[in-house]
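As described in the Methods, two query proteins were run sequentially through the folding procedure within a single session, without resetting any intermediate state between them. The first query and its resulting structure tokens are shown here.
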Amino acid sequence: MKINLDKSKKIAFICSPRLGDTLISMVVVNNLVHNGYLVDVFSDYLYDLRDWFSLVKIKPAIALNNQQDLVNYSVVLHMYESELSKALDDWHKNSFVLAHSPLYKSPMSLVDIQVLVCRDVLDLQNAVRVNGMQPLSELVFCKHKQRIVIHPTSSQKFRSWSAKKFVQLAKKLEDLGFEPKFIVAQNEKEEWQKLVKEAWLPEFKSLSATAAFIYESAFFVGNDSGIGHLASNLGVPTLTLVLRKNLARQWRPNWSCGEIVLPPCWLITRPLKEKFWKYCISVKMVLRKFNLLQQHCAVADKTICGKINDKSFICYAKYFTAAMQDFLKAPDFYIDNSQGPFFKSVVGDTTTVVVVNIGGKEFVVKRYNIKGAGHFLRKCWRRSNAMISWNNVQY
């Protein structure tokens, strides 16, 4: 799938009606703008946040009965299929749904998939995983160092952890000296007023005001939701409760330092997980992960040791972002799909050295390759170069 674009003509970008999808898809818009293309973005969420995206022209979402407003755009891009995209298929010859690309099935985060789409589908140069969101000048990042934003709901009820446990968690955090604050939608407020202290439920007049409040907070804890992506996008460390591992791989908040809480591995099959996951995650489990998140964010030069997919790693805490964790889960995929440059592929292709973009930063990655069965057997009888490197890096 390749889409040809013309820099002399305007592009319309139609965002998803979901906040998380919208923020992720803005990675594509940001790369289009920085490659010299003229883009108008249509989204109600972003229209509320338009002051945070000053480099892009943002308009309210287009209703289905106003689709003719798109007639003067040479290309219309949609992240996902919708009623509007289906309607445009009947008359607009250059209306494309990006999610139709097989890249969306890649074993990596949706943020990084947008970078691949920019490179391989839109043929953009020097694509980055940044969506162009900039904080308002009057705000101070992490101004309230003890304030923890808690988002206890989501767009789908089965994806929300127990309300009772969220309240218990908030009380535990308050006992530890933190200031929990719950963010809920206006139509959810009456229910939550019965569950939590009045001081725990701040009022917000707009999504922009909510973003400002989160930006000046220290941490975010919540379900897998758009507000979690907003917090991560603003650089706030996030702790996200997710019902399935595969869901977390693609959809976890993936811009800043973050941790996820998953139900126990013995809870198998998707229907069982969707029904019982919230009962299998305890307050103690969430607090344990929160402590881990604090440790990762506390000392930039601290090294973190652990295992991901049964592979051991050592990493400086300042680099152990959600993007780095995704890289460590599937390093070969990132190496093979790197934009380069490839520095080295020598000694009969036994070594590959390449620059990999991880979370907006470039890292030089070296991989020791196995040429074949004979090479593998020879390496079995003595320490491999990879093992020697692994031992050396620990000293």
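Immediately afterward, the second query was submitted; its sequence and tokens are:
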Amino acid sequence: MLYNAALILKQKVDEIPKLDLPWPPLASDLTTDNVNKVVPHELFNTLAWICGLSSEPVFNEFVKINSKENAKLMSIAQDLVNLASKQRNPSPKSIALAMALRQLTGSASVISLLSGLGHCMSHSFVLAHETALAQLHVSKDDIIPPGFICTVPTTLAWDNDDFSEETRLGKGTTHITGGIIIQRETGLPGIFEKRESVPRKKSVVASSQDTKPYFIGKRKTIKLKEAMHGNEIDESHYIEFQIDAKKKDLAFCLCRCLGNRNTLPNWTGYNTKVVSEQDIPAQSKIGYLPIIDGSPTEFSTVNEILRKSEKIADKLNLRYICLVFDEAIYSKVQQIRWKEECYLNRFIVRLGDFHTAMAFCGAISKLFRDAGLTVLIFFKFMLGKFLVKMGGQFQSNA
């Protein structure tokens, strides 16, 4: 009877159609729906009955078990299907685990070890997959990742992406520019284009990117008084928006002074608890933009960043788009933006939060340097050194 049951399961496994995915498969292809396509419910139910996870005699669909046990059982079932096909029918788990190991460890030995145990695809498959992903990225002309939505407010963040290779003289290292696109989740369908399979190759030829040279010439500075004409910047116009936040801060200070500090969370935890669910922003969706082969410290690369950002805004049907940079790139972006009218009226350029705080602290130190701030910092530094020295003497005497 057991032998006959095994033959029935083997027949069901052999009848599984090969997972029809464009090459190379992407993360969006390795979904639960595709897992259910490669695992017959007869095999899954048999394993659930053997492991005692279910006693329900279901024959036409997957038995109902909790999500944690379902994930483990699906993992085992995919290993069995992959083993039965001699890795000719890759399962989503075997592909995803191999690529994750490649990114986390970069070790061919680890991948080969788990592949030999039947848990994931081989190292040669991983290399072919990575080559195909690079070829797919180079071959497509679209600069917006799939899934992003038109007319939704969008932020682009650009920064340098240096490889920092070890060279003999410390020169000749790779300096490129990378970017990400950020949108709030809205639940609406994004832009998806039909994807064709990429030819299988052992190597990929990088496409040449011709970045047009840009000469800044005579620098132009914007007149802030004229730029802010018609906009109310006086603090009295924003008091109404600050009332609620000031009340919450006052309540926090009173609770910390008069209440039990052990039961009251810190400032961040306090504001997390008092905020309403309606005020919690939706989760952001993040995608990677094509790499620009050039250092962001060059004006030609910065101009290419602005050109690509304008192209993204046009494709998303956005009148304005927000750009985020660090201090080094921000200064060069503004120099170009103030000279080019098309960029000045299209981009909202801002510093990242960390670099904004750095600039704010630098402004404070410059304004109050002559008021004794420099002496105070020096005194604090010397006091710290004295305390460290005295602490070392106390330890040696003890």
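Residues 394-398 have pLDDT under 50 and may be disordered. We note this only descriptively and draw no conclusion about the first query from it.
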